[in-house]
Amino acid sequence: MDYLTLVTGNKIPVIGSGTNTFGKENRDYNGNINGDTTELEWAIENGYRHFDTAISYRNESVVGKAIAQSGIPRKEFFITSKIPGSEPYNSNEEEVKKAVNDSLEALQTDYIDLYLIHHPWGDLDGMVAVWKTLEKFVDEKTLKAIGVSNFKTKELDYLIEHATIKPAVNQVESHPGHWNDEAIQYALIHNIVPEAWGPLTRVSDEAKKVLTEIGEPYHKTWAQVILRYQIERNVVVIPKSHSRVRQAQNLDIFDFELNPEDRLKIAEL
Fold first, then answer.
1. Which of 43, 81, 92, 130 has minimal Cβ neighbours within 10 Å of its Cβ?
2. Would strands 169-173 and 193-197 be described as parallel, antiparallel, or unpaired?
């Protein structure tokens, strides 16, 4: 596994597992929580130690259960969760504190490696207020790092200007249908780690054909080529799969490097 260094000095694995449909009936995002840890157990067996969840996914407790039952020390894992940018979570300091403490309890841990504001809303000062409360948890070492998700340049500029602790991560949509280069370049310039959600989604048949051809000399799949491209440009990726085999394939990207010509073809998809 490769790692990137956050502004806090902590290291984040460049690949994690998304979890937003894990532990739910019919593997449906809106499905009832059934507590099934099967896919999480497979991921841990395959070597994943970075897991991304959120309050809005409703399954922090499932992620916490799988990690606790693995028998692997907590310190070996990197856990990300997120506070919604909506009522009641963003209404006042007490609600923010309650959200963090509820996340800690659900995840069965006394600290969280990375805690994000899940999405912005139309109140820049309100976002700063939530951020200031999260900073207190960093000072207490309950949250090792804090960051944001889906923030645009204007929102990040305002937050950085008013923050004491700089955002460590901006998690954004990034895949062949929308590489989101502007957001990623902004993050890199400001020493914020960019993280791609949905990295293997919305890939057209035409793009899959190009990516498959690129992967053939490396003996890699189109999905592995996408993930390799992202990490080579210092983007953390959090693919999600309900297949034990594909989970393993998504991790198997550290034994090759894309040549400049291939990177250019991928960038132009």
1. 92
2. parallel
Is residue 21 within 8 Å of 241, Cβ to Cβ?
no
Report the pLDDT value the prediction gives residue 172, as an integer from 0 to 100. 98
Task: Copy the structure tokens of residue 13.
Answer: 């694995």
Residue 118 makes CB contacts below 8 A (sequence gap 6+) with 54, 55, 56, 82, 83, 84, 85, 149, 150
The catalytic residues are: 57
Mean pLDDT score of the chain, rounded to an integer? 97
Look at residue 132 and give its three-state secondary structure. helix
The pLDDT, as a whole number, for residue 260 is 97
Q: How far apart are CA 65 and CA 45, in angstroms?
A: 15
With H, G, I as helix, E, B as strand and everything else as coil, classify residue 169.
strand
d(CA 125, CA 135): 15
Q: What pTM was computed for the model?
A: 0.96
Split at pLDDT 50, 70, 90, the class of 96 is very high
User: Which residues 6+ apart lie within 8 Å of 36 measured at CB?
Assistant: 22, 23, 24, 62
φ/ψ of 42, rounded to 5, equals -60, -45
Tokens at 111, concatenated: 């600290």
DSSP per-residue letters across 186-251: HHHHTT-EEEEESTTSS--HHHHHHHHHHHGGGT--HHHHHHHHHHHTT-EEE---S-HHHHHHHH
pLDDT tier at 166, thresholds 50, 70, 90: very high
CA distance 32 to 42: 21
First to last CA, the chain: 27
The predicted pLDDT at position 259 comes to 97
Cβ count within 10 A of residue 199: 26
**Of 114, 136, 125, 50, residue with least CA distance to 90:** 125
Is residue 123 within 8 A of residue 154, CB to CB? The reply is: no
